[in-house]
Specification:
single chain; alpha+beta; 60s Ribosomal Protein L30, Chain: A; Phosphoribosyl-aminoimidazole Synthetase, Chain A, domain 2; 10 helices; binds adenosine-5'-diphosphate; binds magnesium ion; thiamine biosynthesis
């Protein structure tokens, strides 16, 4: 199978020419460039994420889940900005034209794309070590993108969903701990099939003062918001939302997975205290649970406190459990 057959068969979905204009894509796959038409009065938001085997996914992941995850991590960036997904580009390096891989990968990719109304508008395909590079484009009304830079002292700090399960699954794969089969399946789903919080991000437009998605771990990603906003924060460890599986683990493992887990793809955001009711309504409207987990301070730095409000010293130190 040649490069053009491969694109036609698995990515152009029967139409090498025009895609409907409905999502701002006037012309999609098939020409030298895609032609896009931004909605008047809107800004385009663009983000790219590359996935490399061994670093961003394990060779044990199914092609269908990999297709899902490759797009999901990109949609998560649009979600963090409160953007509505419009178009994406897929650049692929493949060791060989493996039809079973391509069928599964494109199925997982398009299932998620269709769920979010985003159109594959182009890309590039080449032979090489497996590498998946996606660029997504979305829109917000002019000036309404959620940014990392808007957090203000006394804002509430919020988190969506639950944190830490993906890291727990990774540690099981690494062999540093073990879980009963059904619990492993549960956390493995969070690692391999993350659900980008696009609806929540959109519902937070005009409400949240700042937002970021958690891809590298809560403490680190929140640190980006604090740095860009020139503020600090106090985080209440006991209030961080976690699954029943993680909640049953030893305290130090919970702390590590919650604070520096990574691959969560939840949103962390800030909003003024007077917006509390509206934030809860945004969560309900988007069918996404949201939790108040701390406060923004004028004093720079991140402080983590326990259930009694006592400061936890060095909350990010490494843990014996994971030293193999
Ligand atoms: P060019 O040689 O001009 O770069 P290509 O032959 O690489 O064009 O691609 C032909 C068409 O197929 C272009 O519209 C391009 O965007 C699209 N395309 C190539 N690879 C992919 C892919 N993996 N997914 C989606 N579209 C692709
Ligand atoms: Mg090309």
């Amino acid at each position: 199978m040649g490069e053009f057959d491969l694109i036609a068969r698995y990515f152009a979905r029967g139409a090498m020419a025009a895609n409907p204009d409905a999502f701002g894509v006037v012309l999609g796959i098939g020409d030298d460039c895609a032609v896009l038409a931004p909605t008047p009065g809107h800004h385009w938001l663009v983000s790219a994420d590359m996935l490399v085997e061994g670093r961003h996914f394990l060779s044990t992941v199914s092609p269908r889940r990999l297709g899902h995850k490759a797009l999901a991590v990109n949609l998560s960036d649009l979600a963090a900005c409160g953007a509505s997904p419009r178009a994406f580009f897929l650049s692929l390096a493949l060791p060989r034209a493996d039809e079973a891989f391509l069928a599964g990968f494109s199925q997982g990719l398009f299932e998620l794309a269709d769920a979010h109304g985003i159109v594959l508008a182009g890309g590039d395909t080449t032979a090489g070590p497996l590498n998946i590079n996606i660029t997504v484009m979305g829109e917000t009304p002019r000036g309404q993108a959620l940014l990392r830079s808007g957090a203000r002292a006394d804002d509430d700090l919020w988190v969506s969903g639950t944190l830490g399960d993906a890291r727990l699954a990774l540690e099981v794969f690494r062999g540093t701990l073990s879980l009963p089969g059904h619990q492993f399946d549960e956390v493995r789903l969070r690692m391999e099939l993350p659900e980008p919080r696009v609806a929540l991000g959109r519902a937070l437009r005009g409400l949240a003062t700042s937002a970021i998605d958690v891809s590298d771990g809560l403490a680190g990603d929140l640190g980006h918001v604090l740095a860009r906003s020139g503020v600090g924060a106090t985080l209440r460890l006991a209030d961080l939302p976690r699954s029943a599986v993680l909640g049953a683990m030893p305290q130090d493992i919970q702390q590590l997975c919650l604070l520096s887990g990574g691959d969560d793809y939840e949103l962390v955001f800030t909003a003024p205290a007077e917006a509390r009711e509206r934030v809860l309504a945004a969560g309900r409207e988007s069918a996404t649970p949201v939790y108040r987990v701390g406060r923004i301070d004028a004093q720079p730095g991140l402080r983590v406190v326990d259930g009694a409000g006592r400061l936890i010293e060095q909350p990010l130190q490494s843990f014996d459990h994971f030293k193999s």
